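Suppose you are handed a protein chain with no further information: no name, no annotation, nothing but its sequence. What can you learn? This example shows the usual starting point.
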Amino acid sequence: MTQLKQARDLNVTPQMRRVAEREGMDVEVIRRGVAGGYIVIPANKRHVSLDPIGIGRGLRTKVNANIGTSGDFAGVDAEIEKMEAVIRYQADTVMDLSTGGDITMIRRELLARCPIPFGNVPVYEMVVDANQRQVPFVDMTPAEMLAFVKRQAEDGVDYMTIHAGLTRRAVDCLMKQGRTADIVSRGGSLMTGWMLHNDRENPFYEGFDDLLAIAREFDVTLSLGDGLRPGCLDDGTDRAQIEELITLGDLVRRCHEAEVQVMVEGPGHLPLDQIETNIRIQKSLCEGAPFYVLGPLVTDVAPGYDHITGAIGGALAAAAGADFLCYVTPSEHLGLPNTQDVRSGIMASRIAAHAGDIAKGLPGAAEWDQRMGQARRDLDWKRQEELSMDPHRFREVRGSRATTTEACSMCGEFCVYKILENRL
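A reasonable first move is to predict its three-dimensional structure. Written in structure tokens, the prediction is:
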């Protein structure tokens, strides 16, 4: 039985209790949210080491960190190191987007060490396997694709990005309107190539009931991918993106009818003034399902600093109702991220998520900041470190800028709190 089925049967699962504990909420609120489809608990029955989390309305905005190999950097040790950083810097979930090396082995090695929800994009392994066998991906059959999905579910993957809403109608819409950046989703481009080569409908759309059967068997949460997400500001909120989103809304309904947990992925690159509109449209079309956004990035001209452009958009998206932020690292658009990039991306998105939670009035969010303000006024450095989102960074900076005064080395004897000490 899936978490959604249990919730609708009025059963409270251990996973629901753990989520309620972590969120500081009554477990009945969590159960009702899962039953209504606006909270998901990605928790594959095979992922035995999982400490579950909830994603959705009324909960703390969550952050995902992507890791994974490429053809140029295919070693598993580097990915294990990155995953350790993901856990250390407290991302809520991790996705393995590997496209190089022995992907099955890499996934299993990572899952064996992973206490947080673990996601992937099944089509990546499919295309790598086809290349290794020197067989064109476009010759792969729908049955072969489903076999990959099932094997990954058996391994314990908690949530999967499936580009099932990218239909031939949506591709026709894209081709008629034209775009500056065309298709920037790797999974979306692969599925589009398959459809055009075979002159057939998207096999994940046509075989969606078979996908639902696999997801229901293992309680995999489907993350409906946005294959036509905008890849630059100029393509934001265009007809092709909205056409796909309408289809995703229909697929959300089918997931709920099948008692399969589901969330929806969103853009991408968007101007600031379009972010709130996108969140509202998604929530309206997709039955309030949790919304998972990449950034969004609010400018296209800051390569090397896209963790910042993504955090700006992520804060606004979270404030507007997005439930889940996919981090963006400084190396976005430039190369495979290293461990330091992972850290920077996680912290930028965590800051954005927390800023959004304050704006949404999430209980406890503003109180955290209030406690920090008090500790700063008291020059209580130990307490400030404890309250810091990244205590490691706090110690790095504080320790490298030593001072003999009670204040910090920027103000020293002219510290504002020392100037007015005991006078206010």
